[in-house]
Amino acid sequence: MVLTSVKLPSRLPSIGTSIFTVMSALANQHKAINLSQGFPDFESPPGLIEAVDRHMRAQQNQYPPMAGVLALREAIAAKVEMLYGTRYHPDSEITVTAGATQAIFTAVAAVVGAGDEVIVFEPVYDSYIPSIELNGGRAVICRLEIPGYRVNWQSVRAAVTPKTRMIIINSPNNPTGSVLDEADLDELASIVRDTNIVVLGDEVYEHMVFGGKKHVSLAAHPELSTRSFVVSIFGKTYHVTGWKVAYCVAPAALTTEFRKVHQFVVFTVNSVMQHALADFMENTGWYQELGALYQDKRDRFRALLAPAPFELLPCDGTYFQCVRYQGDEADTDFTRRLTIETGVAAIPVSAFYADGFDAHVIRFCFAKSAATLEAAAKRLASLA
Q1: Are 88 and 80 a contacting pair, CB within 8 Å?
Q2: CA 51 – CA 238 distance, rounded (Å)
Q3: pTM here?
Q4: Distance, CA of 230 to CA of 219 (rounded, Å)
Q5: How far apart are the first and last CA of the chain?
Q6: How crowded is the C-beta side of 363, counted as CA atoms within 13 Å?
Q7: Please, what's the b/e burial string for 172-185 (b: 16 or more CB within 10 A of its CB; e: otherwise)?
């Protein structure tokens, strides 16, 4: 059946296909090494997979509670308290979600309405602005300062208006690898103090922080934690990105509004995976090893890139390395040519700017095996 008379005005007229989908498809088409989309090419923990099999055979295959399996919410509460010193109640302050993107959309939908403004930082992860606009809000953009991609807090103060409803922060930051510190959160706290502004923290790379730095969570800040949604994810932590299981912790009043939306977006999340994750979290401190694992991969990849004609930008967290190249070629054209001719796929960082700002910076994912990184670096060295 072909629609010939129905006109459907787009809710997102400026949005096309995600850059991650575009570059992964191009990589597959040209059999390139895919360092564009952020997923590991190595195995998840065997004990976690065994737990999935065990719970599936135990018939944990029906709907779990809307907020998530209680054992998993209890495990999340214990982890957050151990790491950040704040106790979130499993019944009223923790919700398991179908990935971080759903958690972010749900948090925005819970508090942002028509005419509200939401401050975001560019380069901005691609789901934030569509989530704001679909809920009737307007994104107000503050640009991170290159090369370190730091926040200019004076510009944030200037961006706040009576319409500001939310500020979204992302640390460790995707795509830049920058990390906020305690002074940053204190600045943020001073800006939102005595306002009704809600903070949304995307902290999915919380366990991937390098060089002696530490992840400073909103959950650990005594002032910000009382007005913040904090989102993290299991897929990045346990190398199971395809499971799309994450969580949001927030004070009870915010969680109540969050769950009102959550129940009508997905209602609940894959039962078996939740039970398996609860078991695995109880019996292992796996996430405590991630910083060293990915710092080694970062350092190895940076060393392998030495012969390539790139300026390596700082990378204090995540599993992404940004590099700057020389020349006049647009980053979208450069990454396309890199994929087709050199056989390595990357992400053009201009895709994370609303106006397509191009600083000739591209992003590689180094959450790959040593063999994959070595093969990719060998191809990239041919550009010299």
Answers
A1: yes
A2: 13
A3: 0.95
A4: 7
A5: 53
A6: 27
A7: bbbbbbbbbeeebb
